[in-house]
Amino acid sequence: MRNSFVGLDIGYDSIKVIELKRDKAGLVATNCVIEPIEYDDVKNYSEEKVAEAIARALKNPSIKDSSVVVSLSGQSVFTRFIKFPTLDRSKIDQIVQFEAQQQVPFPIDDVIWDYQLLGDWATIDDIDEASVALVASKKEVITGLLENFESLKMDIEYIDIAPFALCNCIKFNEPALDGCTLVLDIGAKSTDMLVMEKDTVWLRNIPIGGIAMTQAVQKEFKVTFKEAEFLKKKYSVILCGDGPMVGESPERLRISRALTATMTRLLAEIS
């Protein structure tokens, strides 16, 4: 069992790296690096900028391990949760492969896919009412990711999807968590919504995130995307309900109202 790990989260506007080490108390975060990816406009996204940011983050002197665990955003993968009334353990691979061919909306030869049997079925041969998480990503996405790491002389230990990694993190830190739990991970381009209950996880990706908020500010003030991003981060306050914001400047009120309209759309998708 490894005693140290490096986790890498590849976001749209930043690369986040965390180094964990195992000791007697459990896992301890020893280093953390956030490398921003700046764009003058949302349309100027480039794989080259992402690759450069990954290189800067992993070459940070504080990061010493050479094996990396990488997460893919929920927007980059296709996810399905499939229920089976009964499942013979010896035939799981065959059954799930058939389901993958039926469910994945791309030619099966063009994707890399895997599955996870949900729940604690390690010692059971015949499984009743089993749930399987099926995840697939286009080969070009995985290939591009691997190419970024070849030049860095770092090994990818394994690839997970960000929503599942977040789910595992919550379960690790809150083992006594009971009942139904809603988790929202608001990223730059989209929001991952997870509903967790016992061994069951439900996932949905909503195409509303921080960029939509920045664009709302940009439209309100008729400024560049970069200027709107600055205004959002410095002055924004989300209005809750229709109550007035006492003592705030007119500019801050305009920013907050623009953001509140976007958040209302997000809340409508969640509910």
Question: What are the main properties of this structure?
Answer:
5-stranded mixed sheet, 271 residues, 7 helices, alpha+beta
What this model shows, in words?
With 271 residues, this protein is of the alpha+beta class. The chain has three domains: 4-75 and 139-176, ATPase, nucleotide binding domain (Nucleotidyltransferase, domain 5, 2-Layer Sandwich), CATH 3.30.420; 79-135, Dna Ligase, domain 1 (2-Layer Sandwich); 211-270, no CATH class. Helix content is 34%, strand content 35%. The chain contains seven helices and eleven strands. The strands form three sheets. It has a five-stranded mixed sheet. It has a three-stranded antiparallel sheet with strand order 5-7-6. A three-stranded antiparallel sheet has the order 9-10-11, covered by helices on one side. A hairpin with a 4-residue loop joins strand 9 (180-186) and strand 10 (191-197). The mean pLDDT is 84.
